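Before the break, one more example. Copy the sequence into your notebook; we will annotate it together after we see the structure.
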Amino acid sequence: MGYVSAVPPPRNDAASEPSEPEAPDSRSARRSVAAALLLGALGATVVLLASGRTWARGTTAIGGDSLQLTADGRAVTGLPAALAIVGLAALVAVFAVRGRSRLLVSGLLALSGLGAALSALFGSDGRRALDAEAARTTADSAAHAAALTQTTWPYVTAAGAVLILAAGLLALRFGRGWPSMGGRYERDGSPRRRTVAAVDPDRPEDLWKALDRGEDPTTDPGADRSH
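Here is what the structure looks like once it is written out:
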């Protein structure tokens, strides 16, 4: 003689129940996170790549000829590349902290972009780097660069730094609602307590869901177990 289960199979009500609309705050938080990550990563990449390009050109006299000189961004000023690396670290750290610490890291991210942009614009003359290159090439410490010209790469570097600044401003404005790493743990490091859903014995689908979770649907979670 076969046995018949007293619990009927669960009904599939997923198609009949309307899905809850997503909260506008959640959508805007996700969009701002994506925008900040894209701007910060792209800006740092542009700064690091553009800093390795030729920023300044010139000539120096050697014998009766003129020698062509070039200086890349890192020879002119190493600040933009260094601040771009700081900005990348701050961009990652934004998601590892919360509260006031997140505000401070977001400010560091914005200041990294601002500092990189200003150093690229105002420290891009290149004369000192070209003079050093002239002295090294001619083995004459009194040699100087002439016919100094500047390329567009310092401005490309500054544009990339502005993207890092924009990422920092987004973090300052919307970072409070962004998720954080290990968010399912409380501040003391202990996991959050799991809330047991109430089971209605008159609803067979609740009984099946409780069994799927490994719970005993016949046990009242609010009952006193001290006896």
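Residues 95 and 179 are 7 Å apart (CA to CA). The longest strand covers residues 54-62. Try to locate both features in your own notes.
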